[in-house]
Amino acid sequence: MTVFSYFDHDADIGVIGRGRTLEESFEGAAAGTFAIMADLAQVRAARSIRIEFEEEDLELALVTWLNTLLAEAGTYGLVLGRFRLVRDNSHWQGEAWGEPWREDMDRGVEVKGATLTMLRVAQGPEGFEARCVVDV
Amino acid sequence: MDMSRLRKLNDYCWTAPLTPGEERGPVLLYGSELLLVNMDDKVLEQITNVARLPGLVGTAMTMPDAHWGYGFPIGGVAAFDADQGGIISAGGVGIDISCGIRTLRSNLMLHEVDGKLGALADALYHRIPAGVGEEGELKLSTAELDAVLLEGAEWAVRHGYGDPEDLEYIEERGRMGGAHPESVSDLAKRRQRGEMGTLGSGNHYLEVQVVDRIHDAQAATAYGLQEGQLLITIHCGSRGLGHQIGTEYLLSLAKAGGRLGIALPERGLACAPIHSPEGQQYIGAMNAAINVALANREMLTQLTREVFGRIFPDSRLELLYDVSHNTCKAESHKVDGVERKLWVHRKGATRAFGPGHSALPERYRAVGQPVIIGGSMGTGSYILAGMAESEERAFSSASHGAGRAMSRHQALKQWHGRELIDELAGRGILIRTRSMRGAAEEAPGAYKDVDLVAEATEKAGLARRVVFLRPKVCIKG
Predict the structure, then answer these.
(1) B251: nearest CB among A37, A64, A70
(2) Number of helices (H), then strands (E), in chain A
(3) Assuming Cys at both sites, which of B24, B75, B134, B142 could form a disulfide with B52, CB separation 3.0 to 4.6 Å?
(4) What pTM value is reported for the model?
């Protein structure tokens, strides 16, 4: 289950993903990012995209994951609503589902990219938390 | 902001003295006490981090509209000398490279259009691709896009978007030199494919405004402005291509920091020495993104002219000025009486050349560069003129907007988009948007008082007020 919330930032928006595993927390951060742009409940899983990258640094991996999703969604005119990520050491493989923007969809605001500000990936007693500020 | 950490130099200029053991360059914060008290402490933290970067010349500073950003604060200005190990920072330019603002002056007066503003708002809303998920009509091949990356607004004019006369009134005459399309990834180019001639969202807008008050009659005359005149202001940036360049280089320069011998006070300041292959590659890509932003605003201008031409057949829209506020540019500035070539980062800050500057169009040279402070959709905006003193004080820089006073998250809790739009309509301001969330986040109350920002900008000696503009129609992304 993807869990996300937000934290305050003057100019932009802080996104927090949470999960029992590291990967789940990243999936939550992705859902939190795309929920700024659309009501995820309205997004049908009609198309999928696959992404793959190498990154040893967990915090930079979070930013890479979010920015790759944003780039792919922007390139193909998609809004994404469901996310899955698998990690094998520094190798990350992800999939996301969504559809092209529909006229009847409620629009939020565009996320331009994930930044390195307030960037943190940490494990606590209740699981993992992945956070950063996204530029809107 | 905790004012006990600041020392007042005058009513509109403050510094943060070094604490014991602290090693960094000096910082200045421009603004009134009221503006500074209400700023987040993060603004001071971020600008003092900037003052730790190598090769800083003079002081790192914030403009009166400053607020907490990523890497640099929004409203942050800092100059670096390449020959003294100076850096270029992707976090000092921002993800929306060359986000900027342009104002068009019309030959229409408010009383001539008053009954048609609703039709104008609807027509602009249908013609201007605005908001997340909206695409432009023009789809460019990679080869065509490479030409945009090199030629900027010149490319747009050559392809029928905009008038040749516009180029005179765009920074760098509409074409940023030193652009390297080969430094731009294929993904960045693909991401831009459907985004030429689009407004974007968030704080981007197209606004029809009326000149409400004149502060400086001489400069207003030079700018061709009179009370009651209708103006159009467009605020947007380099769209998907710029965002992709911004995020890619933010990551790659953050990773390269250690290898390049730079100890970053914060990873968001990701940077490289200007005299390094990494720095040069970023500069080439950034300049290409600047050209995309200039072309994009020129294309939106053409769409706007088409709409005005349909509704007001005798209308004429001339470009007053186009200025970017997320850039780093190589400029000559006098430091301690010596002319030096510096790389001036302006992150959410406007270049503001004073009277006589050779880069200004002849028409404005006697009064200084037009400086546009875009306010919120419910209050108003200002056009100011660059002042000679600004060169010594802030490398010829000034405020760029009202500046946020409240987070988007807080604004969403406080306002509802539909109610806000209805309330503004009751005050004669017509909003057209696809995004109720976006409208709420951009609520006028979420911004600082633009009057205070413009006043502080003038009293700090950065730029002087010329006219105040009242919004009439706003197309929000």
Answers:
(1) A64
(2) 2, 8
(3) B24
(4) 0.97
